Amino acid sequence: MIPQREIDVNAYHRRAVGNYFLVVMKLKTGYFFNESFLQHELEPGHPESAERLIAINERIRSSAVAGRIEWISTSFDRNLHLPLISAVHTGSHIDEVLAIPATGRAAGDAVAAVTGAVDAVFTERIANAFCAVRPPGHHAHNDAHHDGINQGEGFCFLNNVAIAARYAQKKYHAIKVLIVDWDYHHGNGTESYFYDDPSVFYFSTHRLGAYPGTGLPTRTGSGAAEGYTFNYPLPKPEYPFGPVEDADLLFTFHVLADHLEKISFSPDLVLISAGFDSLACDPLGNFDLSEEVFHPITKLLMKIAQQMCNGRIVSVLEGGYNPLGLAIAVEAHLQALARFPDESAPSTRTTTP
Q1: Does the annotation mark 46 as catalytic?
Q2: What is the Cα–Cα distance from 305 to 274, expressed in whole angstroms?
Q3: Which of 15, 31, 150, 210 has the lowest tally of Cβ within 10 angstroms?
């Protein structure tokens, strides 16, 4: 486990902001992975398969950006991680998930990865992080059998990003956290955990009407958190059957940046639910997006993080079910995170499932 220390966030800002670029440029992007993620299987032939991570790992290992990446492996420790999961999930749900062979271990190790990534960015071991985890998490509520026995909810079992947010708040006194979810499917689980919590701003851009059918723009938070949930479904409601292309997705993130400035929401950490099932080549999505679009989107979020929280970003894999297209898109994402200067994004595009 990465050594931990208490950090006063305000003091950290004053100490680090002046030398931000000097500090960050010397640090690599953390790539969190555990072999247990390859053992989890919902059923033979399922789209949420180990082939996804195999393709990503092979692509990144052979990529020119590999020299800017630090591979990090963390493992589930029951004494350490159970209290962190309990900040989000019920005890009975946790027990059910951890009891599922292979899946339980992978889900526990995914929590270790995302919380380890939070540790690493706050202690300045790395500049930022990408967590190549399975199973994904943003649909997870408290029902391990929602989609069938041991099938989770929308392929999800534990809400990795929600757990990471609560951990950052408790361990590092992160007063405000920004969660950005660009998966093709709305993160209904994540939204539900923070819907009445003004310390977490949840932004989601997703397919209007796709599974799980949530994420309407009228859902904006409740009570003191009114306005802290921002759903921006695509295409626009007035054009429900219109195309969604790179420029449409990019525009939503300019809207987000303007909105955060308008409401003066300045996070201490940016978490990304990084789903890539919105690609044109994905079998579960039907946007017309290129793999390359995730490079400028990532750069926009990095600019927000640079201005507000010393560049602290932890990105966590969610969907994406065409292994080759997923791998290319993740490479584009990592090139941006790692500030790889020699090429702005990979040039290959996959157009068929």
Answers
A1: no
A2: 16
A3: 15
